[in-house]
DNA sequence: GCCTACAAACTTGTATACAAGCTAAAAAGC
DNA sequence: GCTTTTTAGCTTGTATACAAGTTTGTAGGC
């Protein structure tokens, strides 16, 4: 594949995983072309690839948008993740010690990020746990699938998650790793299933995805100097929005 | 998505699933464009989408080719399928009666195709069992994933499978459905894992994918009137090759 | 003052032309 | 006769021009 195209794809996907791009964000072809210093053709390639991966969508002659999953799609994404990640733990016969060490270190980083209050890397690390798990216990193909699904669920969380329970999630991860260390993969699998179900249960899927989310994004507090925002933001998280900085 | 592009994508993917396109088949942009009555631009779109789905690959300025998975990639594909399909059965709490009925009917069709010696639909049905399962017990997202993976494993079987054990596979399917009927999903999950592992074990992954496969394809017996082919084909299956008929 | 109709600007959709590179066949040299 | 070099043809890679449609801003009518 063309390296330039792959770069664009990767940049957008990792920005989504890090929570730096909100669902519904418009991704103009020309803007991206200028930003990456390539022609529209390349950008279109990357976009179509990302569309296949379920991360962006095109609205005819209006532009490309980061997907805003419906409630139904949200359920599907979580269901799929539960199936795969439970299956992964259930299928693996034994966890090698080096994998276990890496996972424990990762969980430690999660806790550190939570305690230091680093919101940006916190969300990123919580998602990365699952990706690393797939990478360590599965294979590249599985990792790719989990990565795309995690991107989806990250976007879903931005749309439907009233309150982020980062601490609880990290605790769950800890428990899962503990079960793996005790070589009780069946328990680990069950905990993983419960963990994902819990995150899903924490969503408010009755609330329609906010059609004003994009607008709120632009008017988010961080763009002002004052710290008393006049624009209320019900439950969407503030984003650093380092993407598409020039305009 | 553009309907024309989707058509091309779907046509190629389903042809692969049906075993009508062999791994390594060259898919020229212009030929496909003529065949579908569209411009190369559209064909390229479809190809790039299929590339992200892991079904075709582009060789720079040489053309698009249906993937010929390496031994390593073959292992990854089977591992991934095992993880997901075991996870699916393990996660589902109960199988609704109408799903059970549909699956039983499907298995009956498998047996009928095997007994009647219909090789073409036989292979197609055996793969479809897993796709239908994902569709019935999972969701659209999961079905799409399984479909792409099944396309991969179908191609792998064409490359590495010395002898097809269709009857055995169908028996396995029957046992899995029986376990589901007995509401023993844990057993069903275990049987599924063993079934996929068995298919994988039946492969000869030490044998390099035959570099002459493409050539044999062109000289395959079906293109001659006589039924004593002068070109030996070690273990690749004969294909009807209804695809790309005009030239 | 408000609503509607029109126009201008902007964005993607699509085809096409040409560039770049690969393959294979023909020609030249030994 | 065999090897090497050149050349011609074919296929993808990329940019660009223009078509088609959407949005937004503006002017006109009520």
From TrEMBL, chains A, B:
Protein name: GntR family transcriptional regulator
UniProt cross-references to CDD domains, sorted A to Z: WHTH_GntR
Domain HTH gntR-type: 2-69
Residues covered by region (Disordered): 219-247
DNA-binding listed as a keyword: yes
Pfam families: FCD, GntR
The entry's keywords: DNA-binding, Transcription, Transcription regulation
Species: Ancylobacter radicis
UniProt entry tagged with the keyword Magnesium: no
Residue spans of biased composition, Basic residues class: 234-247
Superkingdom of the organism of origin: Bacteria
Signal peptide: none
């Amino acid at each position: 594949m063309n390296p330039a195209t792959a770069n664009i794809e990767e940049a957008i996907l990792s920005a989504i995983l890090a929570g730096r791009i909100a669902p519904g964000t418009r991704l103009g072809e020309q803007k991206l072309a200028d930003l990456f210093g390539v022609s529209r053709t390349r950008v279109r390639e990357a976009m179509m690839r990302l569309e296949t991966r379920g991360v962006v969508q095109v609205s005819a002659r209006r532009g490309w948008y980061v997907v805003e999953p419906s409630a139904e799609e949200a359920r599907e994404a979580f269901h799929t993740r539960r199936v795969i990640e439970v299956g992964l733990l259930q299928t693996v016969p034994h966890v090698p010690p080096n994998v276990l060490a890496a996972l424990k270190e990762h969980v430690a980083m999660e806790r550190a990020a939570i305690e230091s209050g680093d919101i940006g890397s916190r969300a990123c690390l919580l998602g990365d746990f699952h990706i690393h798990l797939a990478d360590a216990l599965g294979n590249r193909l599985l990792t790719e699938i989990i990565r795309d699904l995690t991107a989806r669920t990250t976007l879903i969380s931005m749309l439907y998650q009233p309150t982020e329970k980062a601490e609880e999630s990290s605790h769950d991860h800890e428990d899962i790793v503990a079960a793996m260390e005790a070589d009780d993969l069946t328990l680990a699998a069950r905990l993983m299933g419960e963990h994902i179900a819990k995150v899903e249960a924490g969503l408010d899927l009755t609330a329609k995805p906010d059609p004003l989310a994009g607008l709120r994004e632009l008017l988010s507090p961080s763009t002002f100097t004052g710290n008393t925002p006049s624009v209320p933001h019900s439950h969407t998280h503030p984003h650093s929005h380092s993407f598409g900085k020039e305009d």
